[in-house]
Amino acid sequence: MIVTEHFPVLVIVISLFSAFTIFIAGRWNKKTCSPISIATISVQLFMSFFILNQVITRGTIHYWLGGWAPPWGIEYVIDAFNAYVLVIVLFICLLTAIYAKRSIEREQPHRIVPFYVVFQLLITGLCGITVTGDIFNLYVFLEIASLAAYALIAVAGGRALKASYNYVIMGSIGACFYLLGAGFLYAVTGSLNMADLSHLLPPLYENKVVQAAFVFFVVGMSIKMALFPLHIWQPDAYTYAPSAVTVIIAAAMSKVSIYAFIRVFFSVFTTDFIQIYVPIATAISWIAAIAIIVGSVIAIMQSNLKRMLAYSSVAQVGYIVLGVGLYSTQWGLYGALIHILNHAITKGCLFLVAGAIIYRCGLWNIRDFEGLGKKMPYTCAAFTLAALSMIGVPPSVGFITKLCLLAASLEAVEYAFVAVILASTLLNLVYFWRVIERMYFVRGEGEGEKEKEIKRDEAPVSMVLPALILGSLCIIVGILWLAGAETPLLPVVDQAVNALLGTGVVAAP
Amino acid sequence: MMEESIVYSYRPLLAILCPATAAILILLSSKRPNVRESWTIIAGILQFSLVASMIPTILNEGVIKCTFFPQTMFEGIAFGLKVDAFGLIFALTASFLWILVSFYSVGYMRALKEHAQTRYYFCFAIAIFGAIGIALSPNLLTMFIFYEVLTVSTYPLVIHDQTPEALSAGRKYFAYLLTSGVFFLFAIMLTYHLTGTTDFTNGGIKALAELGSAYRLTLVILFFCFLLGFLKAAWMPFHSWLPTAMIAPTPVSALLHAVAVVKAGVFGIVRIVCYIYGVDLMTSLGLGLALACIAGFTMIVANLFAIAQDNLKRRLAYSTINQLSYILLGAGLLTTEGIRGAMIHIPFHGFMKITLFLCAGAIMVATGKKNISEMGGVGKTMPVTMLAFTITAFGMCGIPPACGFISKWFLCQGALQAGEIVFLFVLLIASFLDVVYFFPIIHTAFFKRPEGVAEEVEVKVKEAPLFMLVPLSITAIFSVIFFLDFILGLNIISMYFYKLVEIAVGNVVP
Prior knowledge:
The complex is a heterodimer. Chain A is mainly α.
């Protein structure tokens, strides 16, 4: 038996076992939780890189759970898209785990063990969603991840309880919609395997049940990924959750929901279906465009940094969905997939910084940020890099997304979307520059000459370093995207897009 | 158009890496001011020698290329650097003046005991990185990247004072320039969408010219998007960010808001006119006339505004707006002589206007005076500074012995060549207005007594520190040399500007 063959399932299994190990070890000594968690995620990350490499060199991996052949058994299918998302998610998780140690010790000193247990369960769920090739299995993992997320948000207590409760209600509705969709498809076809479904469904496309199932899927996943106007749970959840939790929900979990959305969109159903039977592409592009504008405008009105970032996420999800809506153009789906990575890096960095500021200074209101640039220079540098990327200053990652979406909109002759993308640049500028201006340039009253008295008081290394890594990645990855075919990044997306649209070498069998 | 010989070399890359590396070193040595400032100066000298070392190749009708990523994610857009005659003119100007301004900055910042000097030198180096990058860009996308780098890196310089006033000036600066960046980006993507390339091509992109009459309106809109994209050229009515940005320290106003930033704008517009659209397409669409009208309007109105200013730097800022439009007008005329005048005015105006700004800064440091009405008697206390000021002010008005005369000569010829007598008059009226607002300054400085001093008293000469005096003298001397060189024909001293312009014009006008 070669271990590497079993990596797809091991990624999930070791994470699950690690959750129990943390529980037991944590009863004995609280200090063991964090190392175990970090070690587990490192191993998972290594595996995911291995899987990615294998997918790129040898093509799609099909792993039959327990040796049961699909469609009876559960099948894990990993193509370039899964592997890509898996690496992103685990990378963010790793940085969050490193970051969480100090953050949680400060914010929730009495709940360290439960936090790590649930955190590890959340990661299990996220990995599960990403690797599975079975729509019901996806639902199971979705629930694992969601329940873990509800619990993690509620850990903070106080207003977080209400935020978590809202999320529970909305999230459960979303999950129900998804489950209904899966049930409808099972009723019609008798299969739950994605690849199998995509073969069985085409003759049934006219069936109203199938069409209803599709709509259920779309609505359900839209709630999960906080697509406007179904985002109402999201700002509260992001704002009141513990810092580390916000990072992982905003940067990793939302990406996984989007992954599931795209997966169902293109791999269970096909482009034919979306074009002819449920012509939804234009509608969701418009919704996305509205999301971009509304999210940004509401973000401008916020005074709480985390809340502002949360609304900014609403806008950023709009970017990705706009890319999906423009899938028929050359650059649409590229833009969406590229932005999954871009947004994970950028928003991850921003939330890490927001948490670090709360950790060190207890500040969350943007108005109080005066002099922070001197006090926490590295943290603020990371924030600046990520903010520039959000604005889309070249050569950051945000710029690349904008280029792709612009090219796609021009190709689709949708000048409204062009205007939306360009306008959102300026809106982003408004709300991010406000923060940067406060941090670096605005002087408090009566401060003036006393400037030198501000002492450097940086957050702990384990919190600053992840933020700095992500901040510099905003630029490095941007250059890598630009470099195009010469780096390993773009070919991965290339392969993923081809697989999704069923056009390239990796087309569905 | 001649076949170009392409030379592959890493020199352009090294040239732009000089300021980038310097920026990092400056940050690292923030605690030791002497080390920090020497990095700036070393990088400046190195960069200039690298840029200058490319002159011979260009004079041999070659271009130097340096490609990092031949195949970016967008098919048909390579990412790299390319040096041609026109780009080299801008690069030479910016890199040479950077050395002088670095010395000047040392004197200025220390004399005024400014705060946050590390940030200042850091951002300055990054801004030069952006400016040289723009000069050496082979296509629009690369140019856009450096263009935005330039915008963002100059913001901390503009708000250097960090007063509420400075901050609001900074907001205005960003509101104008980043919005313009958005238009620029749109124009680039539209160009790419229409033609599949964004390379600067001698005589214009062929595919763009071959689009046919159905696309006429698109092309006109595209051109105006480009114009809006190059708001750095400060054409009216979108000029007001420039006088506002004068709140920055004087060396910043001198190098960035008289040379690097604003020249990046006009440089870009000339690139669009000559290397994207091409003279023929511009003529057939009637866009040259539109550009010339905007420029003519700006020239007259900016000068009228300038007359009303009492703050010296603001008056110089309006003068810059006016002079930039000379360049736009030259490009808009679409004739050989017009384009020649436009191209030569880029370095010439750079040298002259930087002298004026440096003088303004020197006066501020030595006497603390910012307004023209207070400057009575400055000519006696600061003779060298005011002499330099006078010579270059003459140049601005188009009077020998400074080089402003030459570019105006070409421009007037260009107007005649185009058969547009109106623009000849516009040029002459604008030059006359130049006289109207420059001569009072000279008059006040030399012939008026300082306020409150009734009688002639013995005045002591009190110049600014040598760190400031020498650079401004050098730039003033150079602006005279350029003029003498035109008559005598010594190429080396004037950095071969005439020959380079000759080649550039030969490239773009068939």
